[in-house]
# Entry
Amino acid sequence: MIGAAVLAIPIAWLGPLAFAPLMGLAGLLCLPALRLEDEDRPVAVMLFAGLVWAGMAASWSPHRPDELEDSIALKLALQLPLYWAAWCGARRADPFLRRRALSILAWGLAAVGAVMVVEALTGGAVYQAIRAAIGDPARPDLARKNLAQASFGMALLWPVVAAGGMRAGQPWWLAAPMAIGAGLLAFLFLSDAPVLAVGLSVFVGVVVLNLPRSGPKALALAAAAFFLLTPAALLGLRSLLRALQMTITPPDSWAQRLGYWSHSLDAIAVHPIRGWGLDASRAFSPEIILHPHNGALQVWLELGVPGAVCAALFWAFLLRRLSRERADLAATAACASAAVYLLFGAINFGIWQEWWLGLGALACVIVGLMSGENPAPQTGEIRRTAAKTSTAAAFSG
# Structure
């Protein structure tokens, strides 16, 4: 956990794509900690059912990977046990070492956030200087693009990292450079989603903090509705606009998304039950480039009704378990980051992107570090406890 915390700091700034191998390695090293508790079973069942259905759907997908290493089904089959093991390792780690890992993450990402502020004001000068020093210079526009991608990771992680730091005894103001760095960098580099995400995470955090019991339940219901009802909602909206003969002229990036969504709706209507097959979105180019840029539409397009039901129930079970009788810092931060993950999944990333799944796994690991169980006492501790008990019994006798 400490090694993952240390490595996550430069990755969050310079290479977000490395989150996938980072979490894979962490899971591999945590395999001995792999457990399935009773409270985990609903989430685990939905993940496993979705994995089995996705593997079956790969057989009728029109997209065929060129190499075995490009197989989404194989990657998902490896990611599920490894990421689950990393989460179990975080929950079962030694409390002292958990606090140390959380402190490293909090101070490290606060420093990255401060650097992001400098990058935003200088047009990525630090990043370009590092690339030039290692003999791999980057064009200014590509440097800004790469740094803008890093702002997505920071926008997702800052609620759980800041809360984890507070849980470990670090100052609350470490949240400020993380949130400001992500928002300012995205705003000046013309990336709208992370700016929205920072505001959304604050809003969701405030709601859940004041409504610790019903807030997570409401978020769970919204997430389930997103995966189940998005195609119907977009289809109804499209039909209404056509009936009213209304035209919308959004910016180019949004116009592309609307085009992807419209073509996805038409394709979903052909195979609404079974879907077109795992990773089939890649076969619809140029109408759909890589994926529909909407997680719910991608699940419906590729996995049909069974995939949408598994996704909806997974998120519902995952968020429902964050409901508390009183305000809890870990649950509040987890809901805030979950809302950001859903937002980016709705307008930005493909649902199977490796680095994005790895980043989501890291967020879960951080929550696990905050709310982990006490480890089993060591043999020496058992003996000391027994000796104290015997001495107390002797005195009382």
